[in-house]
Amino acid sequence: MFASIGRLTARHRWWVVVATLLFVVLGGAWGAGAFGAFTGGAGFDDPGAESTHADHLVDGPLGRHVTDAVVLYESDTSTVDDPAFADAVQQAVAKVPGDGIARIESYWSTGDAAFISTDRHATYVGIQFTSGDDYERVEALNEIKDELTAPGLTVRFGGLTAMTQQVNAQVSQDILLAEVISLPILVLLLIVIFRSAVAAALPLVVGIVVAVGSLAVLRVVGYFTDLSTFSVQVVTILGLGLAIDYALFMVNRFREELGRGLTVDAAIQRTMATAGRTVAFSGLTVAVSLACLIVFPSRFLLSMGYAGVATVLFAVISSLVLLPALLRFAGRRVNSLRIPLPRLPRTALVAADETKGRWYRTAHAVMRRPVASTVGIVVVLVALGVPFLGVNWARPGDWVLPVEADARVVTNIMSTDFVADPAKKVTVVVEMPGPADTAQAQTRLAEYAQRLDAVAGVNGAEVTGTYQNQARLTLGYAMDPQSREARTMVEDLRAQAPPPDSRASVTGMPASRVDIVNMVTERLPWMAVFVAVVSFVVLFLAFGSVTLPLKSVLMNLLSLSASFGAIKLIFQDGYLSGLLDFVPVGAVDVDFPILIVAIAFGLSMDYEVFLLSRVREQWVASGDVVESVALGTQRTAKIITSAALLLVVVVGGFLTSGITFMKMVGVGLVIAILVDATIVRGLLVPATMRLMGKWAWWSPAPLARWWSRHGMPEPPHDPTSTRRGAQPHDPALESANA
């Protein structure tokens, strides 16, 4: 099938290239509107959680009683007692139109001294918008920001709505910066890898097509589901990296087949039948890994799943359709425009005799002592993951922003210079059996408020509104909402008995953080089962073995162990925080392991499929377990290392992000990719394959026979490397006849 695709697209190469150019121009222009598909919010909340239920109630007639935006006014020389300071703030507030604003309060409108800092050089204005929608509140804030400026005073915007607006702006800026930094490095690395400008240009062309087309894909997906703000950065960079990796595999195989003396058309067909088949299965595995995110109900993870799957499949299709056409145009000129680079030392080059290659010798070395090698590597990887056992989970907040961002600065100032932070509120909604405004109901609510006020960490609790049978209680707190103390506070609040026959629902940043953590931990086992089962099926279809998929899943989990341990040490404990330019908050975002598992697990399978495909080619031809593993490792080592390096450069763009959450994803992926492409693929896989022997390719007889008839086996071994008349070894049939 894949050879036929290559033959068809190569034959109609002009149509393919012209259609691609039209798509890039028109689809790119149309896809630029993808940014309008994002709702303005990150979408981290669990729709079925108690906190979300409370949010729905206060978004109704009961109404909210929160401060969406905190506008902080400061002066180094003046105090709020100076007429110029007071007039500037009051005039700014007076200019704000009333549309879309439910409440705007200041020291001068309330007389409350809590609006003034302890040194009296700062004050704030609290704003509550009428809308309960994140996107609409961000738009409302953008409309009034200019009116809130005050001559002679430093003005900063904080609070949840301001934080959301600043995250949106930072994400857009980070995408451009990451691409500006990564693209020149990618060009340089491709030239070093191929030493030919023509060969180096082909993966880059495919990558650019996918990067541009991904925006169009995202816009299409946005018509069917709400997309999180963070989706665009993760998905576009992931699509670019995968497209370049896939094209790298195929261009390398094409050059290899030309080197064996095949014609251009025959080399394209052979490339598609081998590397093209591997790309298809690899892409399917990555897509499946991202599809597992649909088991989580939060909009962030759902949109990452939908958008990620669509983008990965688009990268696969682009590689399988566009690249054969480009290869046909290039033909034997694929090695043209040689770049005069210094020659590497002989030991670093791929030896003409593969049995003298470095990775061939390394594979044999670990296979001579497979038990010791396997145990040693597994112990090291598990040990690297041990620090993760002490992780403290968080949900995204203003801590994800750069330390100098307005929202984060305001939070810090409010916690040190003011009596209380108006944005630190917990809301409790009580649904009563009867009207909530009767004397008896008010007495019971007051008693309930007293019990809530007695909970450690709560600073005041009062009834702030009623509607029919619903009552709203507002509570203040002072601790970090991401801390373990905040979780204990929420658990204690929920443990307090509400009025008889009533239902109480707690919401606010600490409560939503508890609910998100609970949602992730409850559904994580289902995600693991989903990934394991579907990956098993995909790998079985690729190789006809039931033992290889089990080994692959375990290997990939081990490669993630080191990544998780490093993330805890770096982002929770603060190691390397100066180098990475962020301020640790003593916690790790709870969405991090989900994303890393989904993306890194798929990428690990990507390299696994590529390596095992070459091992199986040799195994089918010779039946020699040890030699097939050693040759497969040697033949794929350079290209897997190169692909990993290119992907590290792409995802390393996350490290330049001003969003700490994105840095976290970048560090996790870089470590997982490097560990997987070196330690796991180069050492652990050969050792475990030696231990498994021929059983690595085993399946029960019924499944083996089914796969021989209906599976998708790789093409026969290249006849140029097999003796005339020799019969290739078929492990599937061997299992079927066992």
TrEMBL record:
InterPro entries: MMPL_dom, Mycobact_MmpL, SSD
Region ranges (Disordered): 713-738
Family: Belongs to the resistance-nodulation-cell division (RND) (TC 2.A.6) family. MmpL subfamily.
Domain SSD as annotated: residue spans: 197-329
Pfam annotation, one family: MMPL
PROSITE patterns: SSD
Subcellular location: Cell membrane
Transmembrane annotation, as ranges: 175-194, 201-224, 230-251, 279-298, 304-327, 371-394, 524-546, 553-572, 592-612, 639-659, 665-684
Membrane disposition: Multi-pass membrane protein
Main location: membrane
GO cellular component terms given for this protein: plasma membrane
Keyword line: Cell membrane, Membrane, Transmembrane, Transmembrane helix
Full protein name: Drug exporter of the RND superfamily
